[in-house]
Design a protein that fits this description.
Number of helices: 15
Structural class: alpha+beta
Shape: globular
Distance between the termini: 20 Å
Strand content: 15-25%
Oligomer: single chain
Largest sheet: 8 strands, antiparallel
């Protein structure tokens, strides 16, 4: 099945580029609300499922044991920009487990945020693992290991108790088997498992609504949603899509970028979960797709609508500040 064109890029009056994609929107009972394109093709959600990967941290009582703050819980779900506050909070999480940056096994890269990157370089600094966009997630894994009496060393391995707990949480939420033959290694070195979009969407429908979850998992999901809504900066960063959208909508929408054009979301008041993929892996197309789905499904007030429309129809300007084009979702997405 060919995926339809869901996003157009214009220059002047003409379409300059188009992006194909697939979308699955599922309700909390697993019913299909919207299906576009080849949704049964397995995709690697990667960072899009960080909130689901954080569930064992709360279900096992470790967040309470270490008195993790809402900032810290939000960072455990983050693909952050490596700004100073992101690094600070990740370091604080590690300290609560009696660990430091040397325990992180996510690898080191320069901050993803351009301003943070330039500032660190201008100060003559060098990056460490705290600047890795996944350091919050990994700090959460280390807290989970230490809090359950496990040696955190090697926590990124599929055979480590932490990753076994994470895999079980993903299977419980999505209903899909996470098998080694459909697995790969993520950029931060943990296992990642390819599953169909409807399974991903179902997991986020349950995450947002609490339906069909145990009391412990329902409470964990609710705490994560509240933490992220209260601290959307921690999930992404300055001028990032996820932060801007959740800063406006708060608990009305949980959205999380993945990689290679994958995005997931929960619309709790509707009981809907969303999973999508821009076929070519383009992040800007995936963002427009997600913003378009928010406009399609969520009733919005004037302030909310203006903010979401700006994300759904971003304008391009050249180096002289002249408007040269824009992006927009196609009727195939908007209905």
């Amino acid at each position: 099945m060919d995926n339809p064109f869901l996003v157009e890029v214009t220059r002047g009056p003409l379409i300059e580029s188009r992006h194909r994609g697939s979308v699955s929107v599922v309700d909390a009972d697993g019913g299909t609300v919207l299906s576009i394109g080849d949704v049964d093709r397995r995709v690697f959600p990667r960072s899009a499922v960080k909130a689901l990967q954080a569930l064992p941290l709360l279900e096992q009582g470790i967040a309470e044991k270490y008195a993790l703050t809402d900032e810290e819980i939000a960072l455990a779900c983050a693909s952050h920009s490596g700004e100073p506050d992101h690094a600070r909070v990740a370091q604080a999480m590690l300290a609560k487990a009696g660990q430091d940056v040397g325990c992180l096994e996510c690898g080191t890269h320069w901050p993803m945020g351009e301003a943070a990157n330039r500032a660190l370089a201008a100060q003559g600094g060098t990056p460490n693992a705290l600047h890795n966009n996944c350091s919050g997630k990994h700090a959460g894994f280390i807290c989970l290991a230490c809090g359950t009496g496990e040696d955190p060393k090697g926590y990124v391995s599929a055979s480590h108790p932490v990753q076994r707990m994470v895999r079980e949480a993903l299977e419980d939420m999505t209903g899909a088997c996470h098998t080694m033959e459909n697995s790969g290694i993520d950029g931060c070195s943990i296992p990642t498992y390819a599953i169909p979009l409807p399974s991903l969407a179902f997991g986020f429908a349950k995450f947002g609504s609490g339906a069909h979850l145990s009391r412990e998992t329902k409470a964990a999901a609710e705490r994560i949603r509240k933490a992220v809504a209260g601290h959307p900066f921690m999930v992404a960063g300055t001028d990032r899509f996820d932060t801007k959208l959740m800063d406006v909508l708060k608990e009305r929408a949980f959205v999380k970028v993945g990689a290679e054009g994958v995005y997931c979301a929960a619309f709790p008041e509707l009981g809907y979960g969303v999973a999508l993929k821009a076929e070519d892996g383009n992040a800007r197309a995936a963002e427009v797709m997600m913003a378009g789905l928010v406009l399609r499904f969520l009733p919005l007030n004037d302030q909310e609508r203006a903010a979401v429309e700006a994300l759904a129809k971003p304008v391009f300007k050249n180096w002289n500040g002249l408007e040269v084009g824009s992006m927009r979702a196609t009727p195939a997405l908007m209905g």
